[in-house]
Amino acid sequence: MPRSSRNENLHSLATDRSALQLTHPDQKKLDQIARMWNHRGRGLITEMNLKIEKVAIDGVLVRMPFNPSFCADEVKTLLHGGVLTALLDSVFGLANFVAIDGISSMATLDLRVDYLRPAKSRADVMVRAECIRQTRHIAFNSGRIWFDEPDQAEVARGAASFALTRGEVSIFDAMTQSRSSK
Amino acid sequence: MTPDLATQQLRKVPFFQFLDFMITELAETHAAATMPFAERLIGNPIMEYYHGGIIASFMEAVAAISVSHGPDLQPPKPINLTVDYLRPAVRGALMAEATVTRKGKRMASVRTACWQDDASRPVAEGLYHFLLV
Known about the structure:
The structure holds two protein chains of two kinds.
Chain A: H1 5-15, H2 17-23, H3 27-38, H4 43-48, E1 51-56, E2 59-64, H5 81-99, E3 103-115, E4 125-134, E5 138-147, E6 154-166, H6 171-180
Antiparallel strand pairs in A: 1-2, 2-4, 3-6, 4-5, 5-6
Chain B: H1 3-10, H2 14-19, E1 22-27, E2 30-35, E3 42-44, E4 49-50, H3 52-67, E5 77-85, E6 94-103, E7 107-115, E8 124-131
Antiparallel strand pairs in B: 1-2, 2-6, 3-4, 5-8, 6-7, 7-8
């Protein structure tokens, strides 16, 4: 099936791990951070059943399988916009978690989402999110959503800013320490 | 339409069942709702805060209902939204209200707020645009 060149790029990045490791020595740590973030084992993230496809400092790519309980219609072909908003908020969090060192916590300050077309599909949902700028206190994010189907049409676009709390112990360190002490 | 009847109608929407909220007030250009706390709505697993996306979704749902409610009305189409997160939403019920600030032939603009114990201390405020055609 024909695919857009944009998505091909993302997929080749996701699968070509050896090349990534050569250019990014921290890739193993990034993957570990992503796994940890995704395996928190509670709440909406668990319900969304996210698959992390690509993790890098300059952005993440995440897949959400179709879930009938996220639909807006009785025949279950249209995803509710709120799900896309929640997905963007979540994946922005992951992008920051991966891109920014030494944050002990973060909170969404504001979130803006444009629903570009109806989310009418039962295909997997793809989300690409990046931290476009970080300062000591604030992270700025940008993201887009499309369905994993031939036309790759963009369904939603979002922007957010997060308040960062920096600490001696990063979330990553806290989680690895608490894990190893068990 | 009564709040109870509106709540019953919402049961048809799978995602609203997932959120599991009840309409408590319904008027021409206003709606309010309550959502009990649930594990699946958590965003921060350590602090047990509501997920920001759930707060935005809940306000979007109430905003849509404030714009159009009735047995045969098509739900309005969401165009975009802006949410301002003011405080963490902790374990406990979440309340939301939506007021239509302008409703024309094609477009509606809705302001929303979400709070827990004290309506004067909102956890989030929102601005939602809907297409009516």
